[in-house]
Structures are given as C-alpha cells and as structure tokens.
Design a protein that fits this description.
heterodimer, A: mainly beta, 7-stranded mixed beta sheet, 4-stranded antiparallel beta sheet, 53% strand, B: mainly beta, 5-stranded antiparallel beta sheet, 11 strands, 0% helix
Chain lengths: 114, 111
Amino acid sequence: KAGVTQTPRYLIKTRGQQVTLSCSPISGHRSVSWYQQTPGQGLQFLFEYFSETQRNKGNFPGRFSGRQFSNSRSEMNVSTLELGDSALYLCASTPGGTGGYEQYFGPGTRLTVT
Amino acid sequence: QKEVEQNSGPLSVPEGAIASLNCTYSDRVSQSFFWYRQYSGKSPELIMSIYSNGDKEDGRFTAQLNKASQYVSLLIRDSQPSDSATYLCAVISYNNNDMRFGAGTRLTVKP
C-alpha cells in the first residue's frame, strides 16, 4: 500500500498570506489527523477528521482550519500567516472505527513564513 | 504537569548495549500507547503499540506498560548506530481520541 502523501513538501510564504496544505491518507484509512511540529513546542495536535467530520480539535486559533473530503483526503488551511506559524506540518492517517489506533505519518510540509 | 513526559536526554549508549527510554502520562484513563522514532529532518515512524499491561516484544524492541504506575517504557536491545534518533512516546485517552505526544528523548548510539 502506498503511504501517506503530503503536498507541497516545502512552502515559503509571507506574513498575512494564507496557505493550504494537502494530505492523502493510506488507502482505506478514514481518519486523518494534523500536527504542528516546532523545535520549541514539539508535536502539537491540530485536529482530527473522520468520515468528513471534525472529531477533535487542539488548542490552536481559528486561523487554523481543515476539512476532509469523501475520499478521505484532507486539507488544512492557515489564514493570516504569522512568523510563529513556521513549522513542519504533519498529517497522519489511521484506519478509524474498529480498525486500530495506530497513526502513520506522511513526510510533512515544511512551511516557512517570512 | 504535562500530559506525557519523557526525559529529553540526550541519552548516549555504546553499540551493543540496551537503551532504556521512559515515559509517564497523567491521564488515568489512557488506553493506547505508542512509540515512534524520528530521524532528524524526517517524520515520525511507528515502532510499537501496546494496549495491555506487561511486555510486548518485536525484534530488538520491547515495550513495557504499567497502567497502575502510569508508566510506559521502550527497551532497545543490541543498540546500533542506526538507532540514533529521537524517540517519541504517544498516548490516546478514553476521554478523547487525539494522540498526545511527549517531547521526545534523543538517543545516540556510539560505535
């Protein structure tokens, strides 16, 4: 099976812009979670989607949003970018339901805000 | 108190030794526990999952869970230089389905 894919892999944006990141989960996986990873804060949970519904949300401002499509692909959007949003954004997929809780990570999108 | 705590390290062991990585968690209703390995510049890779008290072995790796003590550990036997990475402990609670990560322990295996 192909793994989790994320696009783009690298992105440079300026403050105030918005950005959309994409994630395609492992085939058959219905749950997608998003994380932000920075050297200072470690891995922080953003949100989780299952069957197109947001099930959980971490402690991030409303500028961070996401959605999931019927094919389980997911996107996250960050509006009005700030310098502090520079991070590695990771997507992870899980079978969901009774399929297990193990999360498998994609390669990540490295976002730099200047 | 952080939800998931790990010694940040760095932990340094000689090649061939046993590396012991520890993790404690605060939520008593935690149900699922995971160890991930992350090489520098790469994304986390799942090594082990453990759901029940006791030991679970997979090759050179053994995960140990003690729910009464709210403690989970990872032992790496016959450590190799290629095991040098940051090891992340992760926990899922009954109260929510999101996975909470520790800050990670950096392991260095010296030849």
